[in-house]
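QA checklist item 7 of 12: single-chain prediction sanity check.
[x] sequence parsed
[x] length recorded as 438
[x] structure emitted
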Amino acid sequence: MDKTMFFRILNSEMELATGCTEPGAIALTGAYAGAELNKLGEAIQRMEVKASTNIIKNAMAAGIPGTSYTGMPYAAAIGAAAAAPERKLEVINGVSADVYKAAELLVETGKVNVELAKVPQKLYIDVTVYGPTHSARAVIADLHTNLVLLEVDGKEVFKADPNAPVDTGRDVVTPEEIAAFLTVRKIYDFCDKELDPMNDPIDIIRSAISVNGEICERGMEKDYGLAIGPNLERNCRAGVMTRDMVTNSMIVTTAGADARMAGAPFSVVANSGSGNQGITTTMPVVSLAKWKEIPEDKMVRAVTLSNLIAIRIKSKFGRLSAMCGASVAGTGAACGITYLLGGGYDEICRAIHNMIGDVTGMLCDGAKADCSLKISTCVNAAFQAAFMAMRGVRVESTDGIVEDNVEYTIDNFAKLGNEGSGPMDAAILEMMLNKREA
């Protein structure tokens, strides 16, 4: 087996990011525009931000790392003031006090206007910055780091060729290429038989284990957001829950999501454009391996398997959706858990059928504190799916969207997440933007 494509896919779909990915992408778009205005020697006086429904939904309540700020205006203003697009999704990380001050002034004086962009793309961000005499505009679309347009004073200085490979500074494998290449069978055979976990070039997997482990540890040090992880720990200490290997994995994983959604200044390794998905594909598997004292090489195989399954689903599911990405990541985790419990290909297929029969339909109503609550549900479901699979039990093809062939079950799940999202996204955003008084 030629393993090169697997390595390319992992490096394409997993990357380091700070904070929620959607505010990070908004900040990056602002940074591209701000950098162009900087070249003209002008300071930003006002900004216009336009974004697709899914971007607005996922950025409204997410914390900005290193600050107490939330939302799109602050993300765009901080990115534009920082003007360091070379930092990609870490553009917000570690910026100076002057940057925060400039961004705060823009937002609090009403100089950052946000509008809904009426575009077909689910992922679309358009930021224009205005100085005293010049303006600059940047557009990112389809992928969180995919710059497609730069304008200065209304004149085009860069436009991506729609027929050319996406240029994000990395070796990008398109969703179409991933969907054509990956199957559950190929992923299993690669992870179980072909992968040399201690020597193959899978540094991104090792980074996911260490970096995502770090934010989960930090998430237990204080009460971020709803503090789902720390409160699960308190429940165990109070005797109302038992700290078994399932609850332990829920505690570890959700603590990382607590910290991330609150804007804690710690990086994550994202999966398919989502830091929460990166945490959820990785940490339940790592937690179980440590609990059962499973050798490192098998843990690495299982984490790789989990991440690749999630990537395979997302290649058709789409970057953003009206359905919660934790259900996709949890399905990957269920496969990694099943593998650590001694399951083979058949058991992993059963685990996928079980997860899709269970958590399909969990809504994404934006990136916010209670994402960690949804993640706790999906981690619990992942273990249940794995335990059922190991007993030879699966949701049958007579039930719901589940089919006999695991690939068809995944395709049905992805079709709902992708094609079924439009009206639901619009309804969710309308509710989010029009909250009523109690």
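[x] summary fact logged: The mean pLDDT is 93.
[ ] second reviewer sign-off
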